[in-house]
Structure formats: structure tokens, C-alpha cells
Specification:
It contains 15 helices and 13 strands. It has about 425 residues and is of the alpha/beta class.
Length: about 425
């Protein structure tokens, strides 16, 4: 079995490391965060993901997985570092550059270098390959095989989808695509498709841009429905009975490191040719303010209103708060003078600067319960928990997950026609 060195041990790099180790590969994982390395060295994990803790614990105990802050020589190098955006919404490729530079001293001819990080089009050609060339290798002559194989997994199902999902491998050369594809074909059940690096880069970005555009359509429908007094959820339900229609559900915005970020990588390269993508981003980024506007309407007659926020993560049943609209909403509510008490059973206290409370404490004497994440535990809540703890049992549900009850005044983000101010 080949030896694999994974650069970056976050939400993608760590599951990838554990996955390959579980398949018999000798894996060495690296991360610049010493706290992460110390945690993993004990066989513990620093992120929440179903099935991951047992995989990592076993891999560390059997020494199939080792970790440190520095790379080691290997047959395959997988770069899985973050690619955030700057304030101007252009891609920040500093981590990709640094990761590529860091593996140069450990590279040998015949090695395979795979970038799994999501990157703008032409990053392999214009950023990664030149760094490797400066290191003394000729990827164009296949001295080192360079490829882009973007991750395609979703938090909460990563360990399942690493096995089942199809993969696309874009090579800097045809030979590089073949060599990198061979790595994945040894371990995945899905098909592995070979293509060019730029095609793989653009395909990954379009996957998430497609979703962003369609979510924007649902969110725009929610705004229109609020104005016209229509139940958007009922509209969507009936429209989706058409065999060729599949409208998404509206929500408080779009979060996570993929859908909320990837469209900007396309816009950066073709701003004048991407008005639909840009408009969709504006719509989805406007949703936190739309939610705040509804809170303002509900609390118009209340002095010093208290809001109980249920959920800080961008999606249900994970601890991932990256780009979470819930965090944006909470911070803005606090800035606007609201007393906000947050509860999220999936978020640890040291993962956020916001104060966290247990459910009863968060709801106690609150004027509104604002649901911002669709955790399963929220879907199972009895109306009595709201009635017995809240000052007024009013729920504004932006994730359409709280069951209706005669005891509650329940507003859904797509059904706001009856919304009226609470009497103070």
C-alpha cells in the first residue's frame, strides 16, 4: 500500500485521513494547529462527525495514522486546507500556496500531488504547478503527477459519502489524471471520472453554485409570499408535484464552506458574465436581515425583548458554524440591542464567543424562540417546553422543523401572512 500524507486536518482532511487509514494505507496527517495534533495523537477528535471518532481512534492505536505539524515523504500528497474568501469576496489561496510550498522538501519524482481543497478555475495551472516547478520538478513531463480531486461530501454523512460518492479527478496532464484516479479507485465504491484540472475545478464550483441559485429562488419566493400573504411552503409542496419541478425550501440564509463561498470563485474569474450567480448570492446574503426584520415586527411593542435562539450551525445535526447565517443573525440582534440567549446542543462552549445556555435557560422568560438550525432534537420538541418556560410562547421557525400546536403561536419563514406584534 502507498503512503499518503494529508495536509490539513479539518472537516475534510481528517475524515479523508481516517478513511484511507481504514483501507490499509499508511497515512500521515499534518496540521499547523498544535492543539489539533495533540488531540489527534491521543486518538480523540476535534470536530463532530458521525462515525469518525471510532475510525480515528482505531487508526491511531494501530499506527495506520500518525500526525504531526510537518509533512513527511510519501507516495501521495493530499492537500485539504481551507480556501476562505477575502472581504472583497476573492479567494484566499494563501493556505493552498503554503501547503504546496511545505511539501516541496519531501517530494520525489513519481509522487502524486492531489488538491482536494475547493479552488477557483486555473488554480492548479496558475498557482500549484508553478510552485512545484520552482521546487525543481517538471509536472508537465510527469516528474510529479498533479491533479485536482475536489471533495464532494456533506457534514453529517462524510464517512458514508467518502465511500459511496462518485469522484472526478482533473489532471494537469492526462497521465496525472490516470495516476490520481488510481488512488481513489482502490477505496471508493462510486465511479471515478478522469478529466482536466480546470474542468474539475469548474465542475465542483458549479455543483454548489447550482444549489445556491436554486435556494435563492426559494428565498425570493418567501419574501414575495410575505408581501402577498401566501404560504410559500404550501406553494412549494404543490409546485413540486409537477414531475419536472423541485423547488428548495427557504431558510435564514446559506452557510457552510461550500455553497456560501464557491460561487464567488466563479464570479472572481468572470464578473461581467455572471449576473445570475451574483444576484443569487445577494438574495441569500439578504436573508439574515429578512429574519431580523420579522423579529423587529414581532417585538415592536415590547421593551427590552429577549430572544431565545435555537441553533447556531449552518445545518442540522453538525457542529459546523462556518459561514453560518445563524451567527450573523445573532450578532446583529445583539448589536441592535436585543437580549439574546443561545442554545445549540451540537456546539461546544469553546467553539464560539457567544454564550450558550441549556434549553430551559435559553427559553426562560423569552419573548420569541427563533429557530435557526434544524437539529433533530428540535424537531422532537414538545410544545410544552415552550409554553412552560417562555414569557410568550411565540416561535419564529426559519427551518420549518417545529411541529404545529394550538398552544404555540408558530410562524414559519415561508408563512408569515398572519405575523403581528406581540403585546408587551
Amino acid at each position: 500500500m502507498e503512503k499518503i500524507c494529508v495536509i490539513g486536518l479539518g472537516y475534510i482532511g481528517l475524515p479523508t485521513s481516517g478513511f484511507f487509514a481504514s483501507k490499509g494505507f499508511h497515512v500521515h496527517g499534518t496540521d499547523v494547529n498544535e492543539s489539533v495534533i495533540n488531540t489527534l495523537s491521543r486518538g480523540d477528535i476535534h470536530i463532530e462527525e458521525p462515525g469518525l471518532v471510532d475510525v480515528i481512534k482505531s487508526a491511531v492505536e494501530t499506527k495506520q495514522l500518525t500526525v504531526s505539524t510537518s509533512p513527511v515523504e510519501a507516495d501521495v500528497f493530499i492537500i485539504a486546507v481551507p480556501t476562505p474568501i477575502f472581504e472583497n469576496e476573492n479567494a484566499n489561496l494563501d493556505y493552498v500556496r503554503k501547503a504546496t510550498e511545505n511539501i516541496i522538501p519531501y517530494l520525489n519524482k513519481g509522487n502524486v500531488v492531489i488538491v482536494e481543497s475547493t479552488i477557483p478555475p486555473r488554480t492548479i495551472d496558475d498557482v500549484v504547478v508553478p510552485i512545484i516547478q520552482e521546487g525543481g520538478f517538471k509536472p508537465e513531463d510527469n516528474e510529479v503527477y498533479v491533479a485536482h480531486c475536489p471533495e464532494r461530501v456533506i457534514p453529517g454523512r462524510i464517512m458514508i459519502e467518502l465511500v459511496e460518492n462518485n469522484r472526478m479527478v482533473g489532471g494537469y496532464t492526462n497521465e496525472a489524471a490516470v495516476k490520481a484516479a488510481e488512488v481513489y479507485r482502490q477505496v471508493v465504491d462510486g465511479e471515478v471520472f478522469e478529466t482536466t484540472a480546470i474542468t474539475a475545478e469548474m465542475s465542483k464550483l458549479m455543483e454548489n453554485t447550482f444549489r445556491d441559485v436554486n435556494i435563492a429562488l426559494a428565498n425570493e419566493l418567501a419574501k414575495i409570499s410575505e408581501k402577498l400573504g401566501v404560504n410559500a411552503h404550501e406553494v412549494i409542496k404543490l409546485a413540486n408535484m409537477h414531475p419536472r419541478v423541485n423547488i428548495h425550501q427557504p431558510g435564514p440564509g446559506v452557510g457552510g464552506h461550500c455553497i456560501a463561498v464557491d460561487p464567488y470563485f466563479i464570479v472572481e474569474k468572470a464578473k461581467g458574465l455572471s449576473p445570475l450567480i451574483q444576484t443569487s448570492r445577494k438574495i441569500n446574503k439578504s436573508m439574515p436581515q429578512f429574519v431580523i426584520d420579522q423579529v423587529d415586527k414581532l417585538t415592536h411593542n415590547i421593551q427590552n425583548p429577549t430572544i431565545a435562539v435555537l441553533g447556531l450551525t449552518y445545518k442540522g445535526n453538525v457542529d459546523d458554524m462556518r459561514e453560518s447565517p445563524a451567527v450573523t443573525i445573532v450578532n446583529q440582534l445583539i448589536s441592535n440591542g436585543y437580549n439574546v440567549k443561545c442554545h445549540d446542543p451540537h456546539v461546544k462552549n469553546d467553539a464560539t464567543e457567544l454564550s450558550l445556555f441549556n434549553l430551559e435557560h435559553a427559553l426562560a422568560d423569552s419573548d420569541i424562540a427563533l429557530v435557526l438550525s434544524d437539529h433533530n432534537v428540535f424537531k422532537e420538541l414538545s410544545s410544552s417546553i415552550f409554553v412552560s418556560n417562555m414569557k410568550t410562547p411565540v416561535v419564529l421557525d426559519t427551518k420549518n422543523c417545529i411541529p404545529e400546536s394550538e398552544e404555540l403561536t408558530l410562524y414559519q419563514i415561508g408563512n408569515l401572512s398572519g405575523l403581528k406584534s406581540i403585546e408587551g
